[in-house]
């Protein structure tokens, strides 16, 4: 039997030729956090559609909620005291993939 779905090559940035960032959200299925996770993934993709190589959701158990960017843990529900709001999540992603980028009203709300 042959593999019908060979692994895809990582998406590469046109400007640098380097792999584009990969964001993963691991969420607890027992806690019903799929919709929250999907919404956060959608928000990241709506802001960073061209910059992201992949955004994926990973089901887990035991109250897990972790967000990783290129394998680096950037948010952990237990460690960081709950869930990030979308503003914080977008700023975390921006600060790691394009620190000079202006997020528009997100960077100015509450200042």
TrEMBL record:
<dbReference type="Pfam" id="PF10262">
    <property type="entry name" value="Rdx"/>
</dbReference>
<keyword id="KW-0676">Redox-active center</keyword>
<dbReference type="InterPro" id="IPR036249">
    <property type="entry name" value="Thioredoxin-like_sf"/>
</dbReference>
<protein>
    <submittedName>
        <fullName>SelT/SelW/SelH family protein</fullName>
    </submittedName>
</protein>
<dbReference type="InterPro" id="IPR011893">
    <property type="entry name" value="Selenoprotein_Rdx-typ"/>
</dbReference>
């Amino acid at each position: 039997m042959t593999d019908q779905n060979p692994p895809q090559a990582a998406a590469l940035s046109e400007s640098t030729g380097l792999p584009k960032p990969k964001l993963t959200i691991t969420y607890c299925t027992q806690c019903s956090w799929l919709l929250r996770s999907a919404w956060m993934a959608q928000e990241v993709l709506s802001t960073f559609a061209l910059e992201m190589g992949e955004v994926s959701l990973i089901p887990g158990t035991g109250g897990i909620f972790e967000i990783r960017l290129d394998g680096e843990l950037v948010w952990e529900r237990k460690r960081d005291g709950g869930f990030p709001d979308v503003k914080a999540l977008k700023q975390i992603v921006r600060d790691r993939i394009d620190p000079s980028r202006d997020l528009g009203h997100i960077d100015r709300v509450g200042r």
